[in-house]
Amino acid sequence: MPRVSIDPQGLLVGGRRCWIVGAALEYSLLDPRLWSRSLSLLRQTGFNTVRTSVPWSLHERRRAKPDFEGSLDLRAFVELAIEQGLWVIVRLGPVVGGTFSGGGLPAWLSEIDGLRLREPQDEFLRLVSRWFDTVLSQLKGLA
What we know:
Layout: E1 4-7, E2 10-13, E3 16-18, E4 22-24, H1 35-44, E5 49-53, H2 56-59, H3 74-83, E6 87-91, H4 122-139
């Protein structure tokens, strides 16, 4: 994997100046059969980067039961993007924005007694850390 750095003029990847020209594409909201065509259109239109969110609320509807199948197959989406020659920015969260109910936080979090969402509380941070580990395991080995 090339080294990524920043200087006063911008981004360097492998020592070469790079410009991110990106667009958002939410894999989890699309039929997987549309991913390849959608990514191809981004590339043909001149984009070099796709940004996508990983909504915890969709991937873990039930506590400790992560789902990365079908339209939630993050790894397959990222692999397709790489095959199309795109860089990928993964918006890991835990809050990923208004496109997703609760900003992408799973509803079961609100059922945990005493848990304060979006605060640096030990239990919340432990759950977020576990979520990050789960997502990163899906992306392991991708460049």
